[in-house]
Amino acid sequence: MASQTAAPLAIDKLETLTPRFAATRRLSLDLVATLSDADASAQSMPDASPAKWHLAHTTWFFETFVLRDHVAGYRLFDERYPYLFNSYYEAEGPRHARPRRGLLTRPSLDEICIWRAHVDTAVQTALPDLSPAALTLVELGIQHEQQHQELLLTDLKHLFAQNPLGPAVWSAADLAFASKVAQFSAASGSAGAMQWVRGDEGVVSLGHSGEGFAFDCEVPQFSALLTPHALASRPVTNSEWQEFIADGGYHASSLWLSDGWAWVQAEDIDAPAYWQDGQQFTLAGWQDIDPAAPVTHISFYEADAFASWAGARLPTEIEWETAAAAFDPASGQQLDAAAPVQPAAPDGDAGLKQMFGSVWEWTGSAYRPYPGFRAAPGAVGEYNGKFMSGQFVLRGGSCATPRGHLRASYRNFFYPHQRWQFTGVRLAKDL
Prior knowledge:
Elements (H helix, E strand, L loop, with lengths): L13 H18 L5 H5 L9 H20 L10 H5 L23 H18 L5 H30 L34 E3 L3 E5 L15 E5 L2 E4 L5 H9 L11 H10 L7 E2 L2 E4 L2 E4 L11 H10 L7 H8 L35 E7 L25 E4 L16 E3 L8 E2 L3 E3 L1
Parallel strand pairs: 8-11
Antiparallel strand pairs: 1-4, 2-3, 4-12, 5-6, 6-7, 8-9, 9-10
Helix pairs in contact: 1-5, 1-6, 3-5, 3-6, 8-9
């Protein structure tokens, strides 16, 4: 996921920005409160980052783009840290290689937390006197850290899954939210029969309206044509995926895109990630697969093959966003300050369920700029435009997305083979 630019922030929002900044920074620390320094320093694969690095990178973002650039006389806490914790901002100079982040055993987790506290105090002290441009960057930094909270959880899950002991990130005795973390992949309970819900047709508007925060890949608004179509009433479930497996779905080349079939063969894929012998790995260790929960940790290739097997297709992001506009983006199973897992709530009685939360839903739309897209000036403009190649759009958020972070126009994006994120699928079909 990448962060982007925001619309100018009104000064009268300062009274809400200040507590949101504090709450966001606190939640990141809550998520790592039970980790050892070793837990927080390890890197399980090049696509993932250590928990400690997420804490540091988000701190570097505030220190660099808010304090360094907008607070007169501010001195960096440690002039060596920008090299260690810059992600991919070319304008900010050279940086430590991403696949080698797990080798940063120093600074320690405690030292990173001391740095965080220093930066938090400096930002909170400066907030009343910051310019509108700087306040906009604080808002962007909050949104950016919320994205990293989700990535932190997905990376921790992948890391702990590599341990033959199958350890839980949180035990039943840990933190207020531990008792609800067991599944942490999707809502449980009765899924109900899948139904088809006819979508809107004709010319519609796509993209963010301009009210409130948005990343720059969500703008500008533009008109698009919707042809007759229907969306499935809910995401595909684990039990439906088990039917796909039992029917030989992973071994039928006719269902797969060419690149997807090559990936399945090369990687010996025969089930979603974290599935083994009727169980799935979760942040609470190995658990029985819940047949009614939305399937998760599937790639775009798998989602597309399942849709072909089901006689359907993936929705376009235009179809998805138009349908989601009627629902509350803060509904469903999402990450809360008090509990990483909340029960999935009905999204209304329009026939569509779980439009937000539980699992990110793959679309068939390539991640490309909207007509009229312009990258933001300066280093923050590197966050989006240069990644609009070879990736596909996901919509709706997941159980690991901080509640309040989503909106109907939100665009997530990943490469088609990636599946360590909480990714699922909702079917669509032409009418």
